[in-house]
Amino acid sequence: EKGGYEHFMIKEIYEQPKAVRETMSSRLAKDDSSVLLDELKWNKHDLKAFKKIFIVACGTAYHAGVVGKYYIEKLARIPVEVDIASEFRYRSPLLDENNLTIVISQSGETSDTLAALKEAKRLGSRTLAVTNVVGSSIAREADNVIYTWAGPEIAVASTKAYTTQLVTMFMLAVYMADLKATVSPERSKELIKALRNLPGQLHEILEDVEPIKTFAQRYGFNEDVFFIGRSLDYAVALEGSLKLKEISYIHAEAYAAGELKHGTLALIIEGVPVIALATQSDVYEKTLSNIKEVKARDAVVIGLALKGDKQIEKYVDHTIYIPDTDQLLAPILAVIPLQLLAYYAAVTRGCDVDKPRNLAKSVTVE
Ligand code: F6R
């Protein structure tokens, strides 16, 4: 059942080109002019009614929500608040019929996410579920559902569910942007074309994992690792750090790169590995200056950048490249080396990769 792979997690990592392709395939117009989300049937008046959107989820799905906020705000220009389900449900959120609440859940059964969805409905909000399991509790409870077509995810650590959630949030944002005319038809086409390139680019990353395996073996016995990045790179850093913690038990922290000097820089000492994500061109120079700050404390910096970026090599100890893409889509590629790093670090340390201690695949109790 593991199809020749040693663990479900690595099998699922390798299934991402297919999972991403299936999630988008029937939802893009043949001429790349638009995203077709027939499951929604919204018109521009429906969208006008959404004064604010809430995205609510747990764990990795929450991290997909952080990226989703960025997509919707940037493309569709609707304000978005992202929250952790166990916080949202108890904080008396200010919601009514002028809001849309999007819940994201691979399993569709996470109890806090389901409770958050019920609370949003009770307050009159419209609701949309993004889930991977057809007919799950969350799918049944929401007004509308968009399924991610990742296929069954068995490993506790979520991988292909996350990348398909990102693709879904991206398609949703482009769909809303088209309806609201907040992006030009040319830009929309360019984004859809970039989306179509992802499966091939994911495949390209997965063809050469040796360098990442080497880093994992080399740094797998460090007890602390930091992930830094700005804007979408920060969102991916959050996910990279969770992945590493949960399966390799290495203490990892993700920091918005500009926030380091407000405290965390005190922890950066000689030899501490720092994974610095630098895929976002609009904050690239700022990220470089944060890289210089950690280098000045003798951290070992692994840069993660888009292919063709030669500048970064001057500032870091090692570089991992991902194929060039629109910066909005970079998270979908950038997370792959981080998943692999977590996987190989866990293998190096002899951890039970598919069933990490204390964790369950689906958290159906509070
Ligand atoms: C981490 C992981 C968890 C889940 C979280 C939500 O790798 O898998 O953080 O993302 O428990 O689960 P779902 O998406 O099923 O609601």
UniProtKB/TrEMBL annotation:
The active site is at 361 (for fru-6p isomerization activity). Keywords: Aminotransferase, Cytoplasm, Glutamine amidotransferase, Repeat, Transferase. The keyword Methyltransferase does not apply. Its EC number is 2.6.1.16. GO terms for biological process: carbohydrate metabolic process; fructose 6-phosphate metabolic process; protein N-linked glycosylation; UDP-N-acetylglucosamine metabolic process. Homodimer. This is Glutamine--fructose-6-phosphate aminotransferase [isomerizing]. It comes from Dendrosporobacter quercicolus. The chain holds residues 244 to 609 of 609 of the full protein.
